[in-house]
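Sequence, C-alpha cells reproduced for reference:
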Amino acid sequence: KVEVFDNTNHFEGFAQNGFDDSNWEYYKDPFGIISFAPLFIENQYCVAKDFKTYKPCKITEFDNCIQIDFGTNMSGILEYWLKGKPGQKITIKYAEKIDKQTGRAVFGDVFSPYCEYTFATDEVEHHRTDFLTIGFRYIEIYGYDNEITEGDFCAHFVHSNLISNSTFYCNDNELNSINRVAKQGFLSNLVNIPTD
C-alpha cells in the first residue's frame, strides 16, 4: 500500500464532487481484478468514515528520521501540516509495533506501507492521506529536517459505519481495557470488508 502525492502537480478541487478527471491516467493493477462471481456475491461496500482523531502522544528523533507514536493501533489515515522546500520529498512509513531494544519501528519483511509527499512551496502545506487507509500506531518520517510538534500531525481512526446498540462496562479496569482493545481490533479490521 503506497500513496505518492506530488503537490507541485496539485489540481485545485480534485477532492470535490464534480471534479473533471477525464484526462487522468488511471492506475492499472498488475495482478488484474479478481472476480469470484457468479460463485459468490460481488463485493457490497458500506460507508467507511473517520470516527476518532488521535494526536501524537510521543515524538522521538533518531539520526535519520522522526518517529511519532499515536498511542493505539488503528486502521486509519494520516493528516499533517508541514513546511518544506519546493521539490523536497518526504517519506512516511507506517508500523504497528516497535523493537523494544532499539525503539525503532518494525516494518514488514517483504513490503512496508508508506506515503511520499513532495512540497510545492516553502509555506506550511496541508495533506490528508485519503487514498491510503492502513493499520498503524507508529509512523517514521524520513527526509524532513524541520522540527515537528504535536500539532503538526493527527491520525484518524477509520472503519465501517456500524450500528451498535450495546455497551460494556464493569468495575474491573482490566476487563474494561480488554473490551476496549478487542473492539478497537475488530473495528480496525472492518473497513468495507472484514480482514485478518
About this structure: The helical segments are 173-188.
